[in-house]
Amino acid sequence: MKDYHLYNKNGLAFYVFRKSKGEWQLAFGVLADDIKEACIDALILRFDTDVPELFYHHGKRQVVEVRAKKYSLWHIYLNNAYVGSIQYYTFTKQFNYHLEDNCLLTDDQVQKYIAMIQGGGLKWIKDDIR
User: 9-13 long-range CB contacts below 8 Å, 24 or more apart?
Assistant: First the structure.
């Protein structure tokens, strides 16, 4: 569990946001729902390092997480549910990916994640001994 404090310009904490077991919540203070959700979105994008993006689908927040695994493999999760993978083949030096059927993610989004991996924006565990 980790707390994040939102301060005013006088340095006094008005609101406390908490991340506990992967879920963000407003732990102290009162905010309108839309402002609270905007703050949580900003916290996710700033502090969850494996999250390349989030978007809304039918009014529900969709958090994309790309987690690095060993041997140049990444698993893609949408709201903590597995939806696909990205694999880098050292012999061909190419990326391939797989998305589960009926996944909300598009090919363009996965291509963006691959570009982020190549640019160092997402973790890459380089421990291949093949």
Answer: none
- The chain-wide mean pLDDT, for the chain, equals 90
Q: Is 85 within 8 Å of 98 (Cβ atoms)? A: yes
- The pair of structure tokens assigned to 103 is 């996944």
Q: How remote is the C-alpha of 14 from its chain's centroid?
A: 26
Which pLDDT score is estimated for 127?
64
Share of the chain above pLDDT 70, in %: 96
- Give the tokens for residue 123: 């973790």
Helix (H, G, I), strand (E, B) or coil at 88: strand
Q: Considering the entire predicted model, what is its pTM? A: 0.84
SS3 label, residue 61: strand
